[in-house]
């Protein structure tokens, strides 16, 4: 079940985030660190009502943030749709729960959310060296629209129009 995160979900979401960071580093993916994302980032998401969790049997297994905010680097890309659009941030799944279709369910949730809230598209970026994440997005029908450079390197940007 995917629901809006609340303050009681924060502890589990942060614990999983740290597990994900370790797991990614073990795979040579240096996307996230202590500076970003962190507990403060997730706290702000949840306070704004923008954090979402995937919960199974009372346990948080995944997290993401949804909002209309984006980095200014997005302005340099040739997006196919105009406003309004929604942006996915910080989508992650607990390492022991990966490979079970949870990220796919999270993506479907965003697509339904976008449709119900009359967004024209969904946009996001993914670390270029995270080949697994990039493959999932392309498989789900997201179109590569270009790259941007952030503190940690090159990020691929994706978009999917909502009909």
- Please indicate the percent range of residues in DSSP E strands (runs of 2 or more): 25-35%
Spatially, the strands of the biggest sheet line up as: 1-2-3-4-5-7-6
Strand/helix succession? EHHEEEHEHEE
Shape: globular
Low-confidence stretches: none
> Helix/strand/pairing class, anyone?
alpha+beta
Task: Please identify the oligomeric state.
Answer: single chain
Nearest-integer average pLDDT: 95
Cα-to-Cα separation, first versus last residue: 24 Å
**Helix tally?**
4
Report the sheet with the most strands, covering strand number, pairing sense and barrel closure. 7 strands, mixed
The whole-angstrom Rg is 15 Å
Number-wise, the strands total 7
Q: State the helicity in percent bands.
A: 25-40%
Notes on the structure:
The model has no long low-confidence stretch (mean pLDDT 95). The longest helix is centred in the first third of the chain and has 17 residues, at 10-26. This protein has helices at residues 10-26, 39-47, 102-116, 131-139, and strands at residues 2-4, 51-56, 59-67, 85-93, 121-127, 143-150, 153-161. By secondary structure, the chain is α+β, with helices and mostly antiparallel strands. Strands 1-2-3-4-5-7-6 form a seven-stranded mixed β-sheet, sandwiched between helices. A hairpin with a 2-residue loop joins strand 6 and strand 7.
Topology at a glance:
Layout: E1 2-4, H1 10-26, H2 39-47, E2 51-56, E3 59-67, E4 85-93, H3 102-116, E5 121-127, H4 131-139, E6 143-150, E7 153-161
